[in-house]
Write the C-alpha cells for this entry.
Amino acid sequence: VGLIDLDSKLDELAIDFTETWTILAAIETKACAIESLSEAIDSKVVAFDIALDLSGVFTLLDQLEMKICTIDSKMDVLNSKLELAEGCSQSDIDGTFTVIDAIQMKACTIVSKLEIVDSNVDIIQDCFGIPIKSTDLPLTVTTAGKYYLAEQLSFGLSGTLITIAADNVTIDFLGRAIFSSGLSDVCIRVNAGTSGVTIKNGSFNGAPGDSQIRILAGCENITISDMFFQTTSTAFPFVYSIFIIESNNIFIDDVRFYESNGTDVGLFRCANVLVQDSTFYNSGSGSLPDRSIYMEDCDQVCLVDCLVYNSAEYGLTFTTNMHSFIDQIKIIDCNLSRNTLDGIFMVNAEASVIYNCVCNGNSQAGIKLCGCSNVQITENVCSGNTGAGIVVGSSIDRATSNCYIADNVLMMNATTGNFLEESGNGPNSLLGNFAFAESSLTDYITDKTYLNAVGMDQGEPFIGKFPTKWYNIAGQGDLTV
C-alpha cells in the first residue's frame, strides 16, 4: 500500500513538473517579448519619439505582475506537494528544487526587466510630461508639471478646450496643432491668479469665438514662445489670438501671426511685457478692431525686433482708458510697414522710446504721437507713408510736449509732408534729422536744434523749407533753406 501511495505521489509530481515546464516556457516567451519591448522603448526614448503608447506599456506591466503572482501561487502548491513526498525519492526532490531555482532565477529576470521598463517610462515622462489626447478634452489641469500634445487636436466644442488651474504648468505642443471649427470660445485659458505658465512649440488654426490663448487677471510669469497663429474664418471678426488682462511679467517670444482675423495680441492693464522676434502679417479682415498689437493702460513694455506688415488697422497701438498716462514704452529695431492706418500710434505715453525702426508705406503716418511727453524718437526711417513721416498731435486732454526727435530719415512722405506738428502742441526738440521730399526741391534738416513756440502750427507741408513758425534755439543760422 505504501508503494502504491508513493507511486501516486510521484505521478502527481510528474504532472506538476509538466505544468512547471509549461509555465517556464510561457515565462521564457513572455521574457523575450518583454526584452523586445524594452529594446523598442529604449529606441523610442533615445529618439524622443513621443508616439509611444504608454497606456499599452502599463497594461503589459499589469499582465506581467499577474503572471508573477500566478508563478508564486504555483510555487507554493509545488512546495506543499514536495513536503508530502519528502523522504520517498530524494533524486526527484533534487530535480524539483532545480526547477524551483530556475523559476526563481527567471522571476528575478522578469523583475529586472520590469525595473528597466519602469525606468524608461520615467525617462519619457521627464522629457515630455503627461500626454494630452482628444479623449481628454475638455481638460482642466490642476497639477503642476509638464504636459504635451500626444496628437493633433481637432474640436468643435463650445466653451474652453484646456483650462490651466495650477501654477508652474508647461504645455508643449511638440510641433503639433489645435484646430478649432469656430464654435469654441477659448482654446487655452489660464485661470485668474495663476503663475509660471508656459505655452510653446506649436500652432493654432481655425476660428475661436473668443481667444486662442486667454490669460485672466492676476497672473504672473507667463511665457508664450515658438507659436504660430492663423484664424481663417470671418465668422467671428472680434476675436483675439492672445488676450491678456491685468497680469505682470509677460514674455512673448518668436510668435508668428498669419492672416489672423481680429486682433493678434491684446493686452489690458498689464506691466513688464516683452515681445520679441515676432511676426504679424496680414492681420485683420477690415472689420474693427483689427489690430496687430493693441495695448491699453500697459506700462514697462518693450517690443524688440518685430515685423508688423499689412495690418487692416494700426500696426502698433499703445493707448489709455482707465489710466491718465502709460509709462516706459520701448519700441526697438521693429519694422512697421504697409499698414492700413499708422505704423505706430501712441497715446498719452511718457518716458518712452522709439528707436531704429522702419515705418514705410503706411496709409497714414509712419509714427504718430498724441498727448505724449518725454518721448525719444531717434534713428528711425519713415518713408513712403501716405500721411506724414512723423506726426506730433494732441489727445483728448493733453498736448505732446518735451519730446526729442533726432537723427531720423524722413523720405518721400506725402500729403502733409515729412514732419507735422499739429496746432497747440509743443515745445518739442528736433535735432539732426534728414528729410527728402517728393518734389525736386531740397527738403532736409541740418544739425540744428529747433524748438517751436507753444501754440504755433506748421500749417503747410514740410517741402523745400523748414516750418515757418519754428525758431532756432541754438542760434545756428537761418530757418529757411
Q: What stands out?
A: Residues 2-47 form the longest helix (46 residues).
